[in-house]
Design a protein that fits this description.
Shape: globular
Distance between the termini: 88 Å
CATH superfamily of the largest domain: Vaccinia Virus protein VP39
Helix content: 40-55%
Largest sheet: 9 strands, mixed
CATH architecture of the largest domain: 3-Layer(aba) Sandwich
Radius of gyration: 30 Å
Number of domains: 3
CATH topology of the largest domain: Rossmann fold
Number of strands: 11
């Protein structure tokens, strides 16, 4: 009976219970996040280790020399774990008063045994956190309920990890200037569907918790490709978020290069001189580098051929940095920016003009408001492409789109509401957006649609002072002109006549009522 009951518990309930166990105990949302994430990592890394251990046992027998041979695990992208750090040992010791020390020791041992994890796991964290041993046991017990036996989910690891990234992003309420350590999944899926990272290097200069890389792999899997044909590179300035990204990728078995440490992309580029096939990114919106004590290097080669972007707002610094990393033959980038970048003037306006004249901009897509957890502003998805010429690509024959830009306005696509009133795209909407984009690329079945999309030429963009705001190009219908004014006036007059008649009748009834008790309405005083 107990097992039957356990099977009925939903995964979401277990995950919510994990949050509740620590609520208010450690003293901060980020510390709660790290406490949960560290244990989730131990659980899934331990499960993968035990699964591989059983495979070795079947192949070679129950022989310690084979079962403890590290290379047998690493060859299958499974981290080797010492006995004291294995999940069953953690569960067995969960009731001990020194469980926090046991957890810290396990984290240290796993990092020491697996160099790619260096710096990824929380160190000396649990013993120094303001949390009781009983609460840690409660958290371990809840996480222990998450396994493939009870939840036959194809991507159980991803589902659990994404849940915590998502809810902690919602709870954090980080401001727009700080950017996002978690970009909503439906936006990342859309970017992947548009740039199609089937084969090559995917780069993210501000990778947050690594969601762009995860969706790159999921895109390939979704389209029956080979994930071995893509690799990921990136970096992240925030130390805690950099660790989250390394854990996120490691727990899913995605090999990665996020640099030797967390670092600013501008002042300490961890991947100098690389050229990549794809870029997916969500840079911090309107980042003021002066406030962040950051700066562009003198004579920065990444800006060669363009004006130097202002440090007071790094939007165009991000654009030029990413453009400098793209393969000059076929590189394509999909990234998010605040809408203000579409019309920004002064130096930014000059850079935008240069981008258009150099024919780097392929598409501009304005997204609905309230898609992000930390800000309700509408943002823009930019697509830069170094090859807009005629060519065959992924089974389609693309036409020459040189000197053209596709504009799409999705601000009215805001009816699909998710948790806590946040908007997200569903699969049909993502497919619809991709159809508009690919039909425009091929020239088949594409038409400009009022209030949705428009293909504009470089000449048209120049006439608008190189603004990239879709509203400058997409036709908008004045729905006021559709009103039959004669009919509307007659309706209003009829309604007003009815209201006046009812008011007169009410006045008469009121006068009659007061007359019956000796008062007169509307006349002078009776003395």
């Amino acid at each position: 009976m107990a097992k039957a009951k356990e099977k009925q518990i939903s995964l979401e309930n277990i995950l919510m219970n994990c949050r509740n166990v620590l609520r208010g105990s450690i003293g901060g949302n980020e510390k709660n996040r790290d406490a949960v994430m560290g244990l989730v990592f131990l659980k899934f890394a331990g499960d993968k280790f035990e699964k591989r251990r059983e495979e070795i046992k079947k192949q070679y027998g129950d022989i310690p020399a084979f079962l403890e041979k590290e290379s047998f695990y690493l060859s299958e992208s499974v981290y080797f774990i010492n006995e004291n750090a294995r999940w069953d040992c953690i569960v067995k010791n969960a009731s001990k008063d020194d469980i926090a020390v046991i957890l810290d020791t396990a984290m240290r041992d796993i990092e020491d045994k697996n160099p790619p994890l260096k710096g990824a796991l929380p160190q000396n964290f649990y013993a120094s956190a303001n949390v009781r041993a009983g609460q840690l046991k409660g958290l371990i017990d809840e996480i222990n309920k998450i396994d493939e036996v009870h939840f036959a989910d194809k991507d159980l690891i991803g589902r659990v990890y994404e849940y915590f990234l998502q809810v902690f992003a919602i709870d954090s309420g980080a401001g727009a200037e700080k950017g996002e350590f978690y970009t909503p999944r439906s936006i990342v899926e859309l970017i992947a569907e548009l740039i199609e990272p089937y084969k090559g290097v995917v780069y993210d200069p501000c990778c947050g918790s690594g969601g762009m890389f995860v969706q790159s792999y999921k895109f390939v899997e979704r389209h029956k490709g080979n994930s071995l044909h893509i690799s990921v590179k990136g970096q992240e300035s925030n130390a805690d978020t950099w660790r989250l990204a390394k854990m996120n990728l490691a727990i899913r078995g995605i090999s990665h290069n996020l640099g030797a440490t967390n670092a600013s992309t501008f002042s300490n580029d961890q991947h100098k001189d690389i050229k990549v096939d794809f870029i997916m990114a969500n840079p911090p919106f309107n980042l003021n580098m002066k406030k962040a004590n950051d700066a562009y290097p003198a004579n920065d080669p990444r800006f060669r051929g363009y004006d130097i972007p202002p440090e007071s707002n790094a939007n165009y610094g991000w654009i030029l940095h990413m453009l400098s990393k793209l393969d000059t033959t076929n590189g394509i980038a999909g990234f998010l920016l605040a809408n203000g970048a579409l019309n920004a003037d002064s130096v930014e306006g000059k850079i935008r003009k240069q981008l258009v004249e150099n024919d780097k901009v392929e598409a501009i897509i304005v997204l609905p408001r309230e898609m992000f957890y930390s800000t309700d502003i509408s943002v823009t998805l930019w697509i830069l492409n170094n090859n807009k010429k005629t060519r065959a690509l992924n089974g389609r024959q693309l036409r020459n789109r040189e000197n053209e830009v596709l504009f799409i306005d999705l601000r009215t696509w805001n009816k699909n509401i998710y948790e806590k009133s946040f908007v997200q795209f569903n699969e049909e909407q993502i497919a619809g957006i991709k159809n508009i984009y690919t039909n425009w690329q091929t020239g088949e079945n594409y038409n400009d649609i009022p209030e949705l999309c428009k293909s504009a030429t470089k000449v048209e963009i120049a006439k608008q002072n190189y603004s990239l705001a879709p509203s400058k190009y997409i036709e908008f219908i004045d729905h006021d002109l559709e009103i039959d004014y004669d009919k509307e006036m007659k309706r209003v007059q009829t309604e007003m006549s009815d209201i006046i008649a009812k008011e007169k009748q009410s006045q008469k009834s009121l006068e009659a009522a007061f007359a019956g008790i000796g008062f007169k309405i509307g006349g002078g005083d009776d003395e």
